[in-house]
Design a protein that fits this description.
It is a single chain. This protein has 123 residues and is mainly beta. Strands 5, 6, 8, 9 and 10 form a five-stranded antiparallel beta sheet that branches. It has a four-stranded antiparallel beta sheet with strand order 4-3-11-7, with no helix packed on it. The chain contains one helix and eleven strands; from the N terminus they run E-E-H-E-E-E-E-E-E-E-E-E.
Length: 123
């Protein structure tokens, strides 16, 4: 039997109240930890249906649940002096293309650890 719980406030074990809107709006709507070297593979993820290898340090993430718009926030790190850039392909409500860019060499690089979290409203 399906059901639902309706609540405006949650209470912590210490007795502090937390608004449910804080929990809903503050939680990552999708995330992934993946190996970007060799054959790319997800170690663990939530709401990411697939990852595609587009070339060296160039990956597309496809989401299981669409975002309301493409104005979500994507936080990404692949460590070791690396920064991240969106490619010239703009993010969409169902996918984002990211580059693993090494600031030390100025080139795209495959990295062993790629950690991505996405925050925004789902459709």
């Amino acid at each position: 039997m399906a059901g639902k719980i309706i609540a405006d406030t949650l209470e912590t074990g210490a007795g502090a109240d937390i608004s449910t809107s804080y929990v809903v709006n503050g939680s990552a709507k999708a995330w992934i930890n993946f190996n970007g070297t060799g054959t790319i593979a997800s170690r663990d993820s939530f709401s990411v249906s697939s990852i595609s290898d587009n070339g060296t340090g160039d990956t597309t993430l496809t989401f299981s649940n669409a975002f309301n718009n493409a104005d979500y926030v994507l936080n990404y790190t692949n460590g070791y002096g690396a920064s991240t850039l969106f490619t010239s392909t703009a993010p969409t409500t169902t996918a984002a293309r990211i580059l693993g860019y090494a600031t030390t060499t100025g080139t795209n690089q495959d990295r062993t650890y790629n950690l991505v979290a996405l925050h925004g409203d789902l459709a």
